[in-house]
Design brief:
Blueprint (H helix, E strand, L loop, with lengths): L2 H56 L5 H18 L2 H6 L5 H17 L2 H10 L4 H35 L2 H5 L24
Helix pairs in contact: 1-2, 1-6, 2-4
Length: about 190
């Protein structure tokens, strides 16, 4: 092999390596953007769930104690969502936000258990507004579950790519923080599954 063959081979390897690193960096950037998007979608669904819960409270379908418990948990959730913009930019939820959302899920589970749903069905849920509000709460709870799963899946994809040796050695992630999964209770109340 002549010297020029070695030079062409070396240039070919460098071009291939450069293309691969460029492709990997672009892919990682797209994955980080996807994580940011899924986190924003999760935040929006959490806001909708809290708003639907307050709508159910205001429909006068539930007793006063249940309404107060749900209103308090939903208000806390909405208050935390106002602080969430920085969380979305850093691609992570704070532990406080996860705790508040778990509290809202727990309140929904306690108030809207099988006994309450059976009681509301027997009484016709007072009016159609109450049934519609209950349906919206159920739908938003389902969407929260899906949004959290999509987000955690996107985080897993980013982590998998960032574990590759080429990403670590060539620092393709730059100074981007490692995204974190969002963990809170989001189970539907019994009888809703």
């Amino acid at each position: 092999m002549t010297r020029s063959d070695w030079i062409f081979a070396a240039v070919g390897v460098l071009v291939a390596l450069g293309w691969y690193l460029s492709y990997s960096a672009a892919r990682l950037d797209r994955l980080h953007a996807r994580v940011e998007g899924t986190l924003a979608a999760l935040d929006a669904q959490l806001v909708r769930r809290a708003e639907a819960t307050l709508e159910l409270v205001n429909s006068a379908t539930l007793d006063a104690a249940s309404s107060l418990m749900l209103a308090s948990a939903a208000s806390d959730s909405l208050a935390m969502s106002e602080l969430a913009e920085a969380d979305i930019e850093s691609q992570r939820f704070g532990h406080d936000r996860e705790s508040v959302e778990s509290d809202l899920t727990e309140a929904l589970t306690q108030v809207l258990g099988e006994e309450t749903l059976a009681h509301l069905a027997r009484e016709g849920a007072a009016d159609s507004d109450g049934l519609q509000a209950l349906g919206r709460v159920r739908a938003t709870c389902l969407r929260v579950q899906l949004a959290r799963r999509f987000h955690n899946g996107a985080v897993t994809d980013v982590r998998m790519v960032r574990r590759k040796w080429t990403v670590r050695v060539f620092r393709l992630a730059g100074h981007a923080a490692m995204p974190q999964t969002v963990e809170f209770r989001d189970a539907l109340p019994a009888g809703w599954a």
